[in-house]
Write a structure and sequence with these properties.
2 domains; binds ligand EPZ; disordered N terminus; UDP-n-acetylglucosamine1-carboxyvinyl-transferase, Chain; 16 helices
């Protein structure tokens, strides 16, 4: 199918961005102590889809991505690609991408500053065009988020990189072949983004690139699978040494994104924190080994029903210790949801956040709900309490917002969460999925908060959903 024959319809996901401002004007009200029941469908992986969308810039032919979640971040990445000349069309969970005609413009700062993942376009654009300008993404709520490893990797491959007025200007030196040169690169830290940037750039480089101390996250393997499906020669993804043999060009691709392991983990915690038995699918259980191990350690049972589903059977929650690490260690994106869970576990827990320097924004908000957590340097010390109490709270970042939803589901009374734009970045239809499991929650305009527990309204909503 040739995209050029198809009328380009502004993808519905582009509208998602317009839902973001609304999210800032609304609040999420959750009536706690609900027990959940049933099966929840897991969406495609946000962090895989974002990297693969950047990878589509390598492709001068039709590129189809399936199982792409409808999220604000995905919509923003679509807008950035459109600004670079890419044509996109979303049909349900499939994204048709046409990156034939790139216009060589600079990605707009106001978008890049909001979506760090847009920086992943640097490597593919440099490899494809020989020159690129992209704004430095800057920091965010969870840390400074430097990009030195991305830049140093491209410099090692023969790129000249200058930072001028907050914009990274990268170009391939010399007048000869406008191709990067394969080389051996050691990453000081197994950075996910830097591994992805270098791996994508290396697919079109001359010769062999070896990335040592590479990140091993499943999203890296998914991106490598996507690039291989376009004709790239990549091996070793999923280990700490990735080898890429460059090719002159890549071809059309039709590729499904893996299920989101962090969304899956979040729903496992939802089962544990509400003492509910839940079935989740599709899921790749190998992507969740540390999360499953910790839930079992805490007294739950997580059982693989079949190759692509997991069932959580809750149990009396016991304290445990956690240290976040690069994959296959415990994922930093599951730290906030587990802190919420540990507030209700019997005993004392210590959670060390070793990946990002400022990722405990959820702690003061959980303490407002009656949790007993103290943070010393990069360690949160949690004393278990018998119950949380609902309260008005503020989300500070994506995974903190998930932690507050989880705490609200378990708390006694009503929890009101502000800062919903964080939640909408990374969880597709979270409220609908929770309501289908029996949770009592709804999103209302900030000035229309209900004073008392208006479960009748929520029950009506439930009745509508059940029809
Ligand atoms: C990816 O971010 C994910 N985002 C993050 O998910 C995830 O938490 C993180 O990997 C770790 O797993 C996307 O994939 C879009 P890193 P990334 O580079 O690539 C330091 C979520 O909630 N570092 O592995 O930015 C950095 O400061 C998000 O879905 C450098 O020092 O993560 C951090 O301390 C949050 N120099 C550590 O490495 C660099 O050049 C890990 O960062 C790059 C990174």
């Amino acid at each position: 199918m040739n995209l050029e024959d198809k009328p380009i319809i502004p993808s519905p996901m582009m509208k998602d961005n317009h839902s973001a401002p609304a999210a800032q004007e609304s609040v999420l009200e959750i009536w706690g102590r609900a027990s959940l029941k049933g099966h929840v469908k897991i969406s495609g992986a946000k962090n895989s889809a974002l990297a693969i969308m950047a990878g589509s810039l390598l492709c001068p032919e039709d590129c189809r991505l399936r199982n792409v979640p409808s999220l604000v971040d995905i919509g923003m990445m679509g807008e950035i690609l459109s600004a670079l000349g890419v044509k996109l069309e979303r049909i349900d969970d499939t994204l048709e991408i046409d990156a034939r005609h790139l216009n060589g413009s600079t990605a707009p700062y106001e978008l890049v500053s909001k979506l760090r993942a847009s920086f992943f376009a640097l490597g593919p654009l440099l490899a494809r065009l020989g020159e690129v300008r992209i704004p430095l993404p800057g920091g965010c709520a969870i840390g400074a988020r430097p990009v030195d490893l991305h830049v140093r990797g491209l410099q090692a491959m023969g790129a000249e990189v200058h930072i001028e007025h907050g914009v990274v200007h990268a170009f391939i030196k010399g007048t000869g072949s406008k191709r990067l040169k394969g080389t051996k690169i050691y990453l000081d830290y197994p950075s996910v983004g830097a591994t992805e940037t270098i791996m994508m750039a290396a697919t079109l480089a001359e010769g062999e690139t070896i990335i040592e101390n590479a990140a091993r996250e499943p999203e890296i393997t998914d991106l490598a699978g996507f690039c291989r499906a376009m004709g790239a020669q990549i091996r070793g993804d999923g280990t700490n040494t990735i080898i890429v043999n460059g090719v002159p060009s890549l071809h059309a691709v039709d590729y499904p994104v893996i299920p989101d392991r962090i969304e899956a983990g979040t729903f496992l915690v939802a089962g544990a924190i509400t003492q509910s038995e839940l079935l989740i699918s599709p899921v790749v259980s190998d992507h969740l080994i540390p999360v499953i191990a910790k839930l079992n350690e805490m007294g739950c049972q997580v059982i693989a029903e079949d190759a692509n589903s997991l069932r959580i059977i809750p149990g009396h929650l016991r304290a445990t210790d956690i240290e976040t690490l690069p994959y296959p260690g415990f994922p930093t994106d599951m730290q906030a949801p587990f802190v919420a869970l540990l507030t209700l576990a019997e005993g004392n827990s210590a959670i060390a956040e070793t990946v990002f320097e400022n990722r405990f924004g959820h702690v003061p908000e959980l303490n407002r709900m009656g949790a007993d957590i103290r943070v010393k340097n990069n360690i949160a010390l949690v004393r278990g309490v018998p119950i949380l109490s609902g309260a008005p709270v503020m989300a500070t970042d994506l995974r903190a917002s998930a932690a507050l939803v989880l705490a609200g589901l378990a708390a006694d009374g009503k929890t009101t969460i502000r800062g919903l734009h964080h939640l909408d970045r990374g969880y597709e239809n979270l409220e609908d999925k929770l309501r289908l499991l029996g949770a009592k929650l709804h999103r209302v305009p900030a000035d229309a908060e209900t004073e008392e527990d208006n479960t009748s309204v929520v029950e009506n909503q439930l009745a509508q959903v059940a029809q």
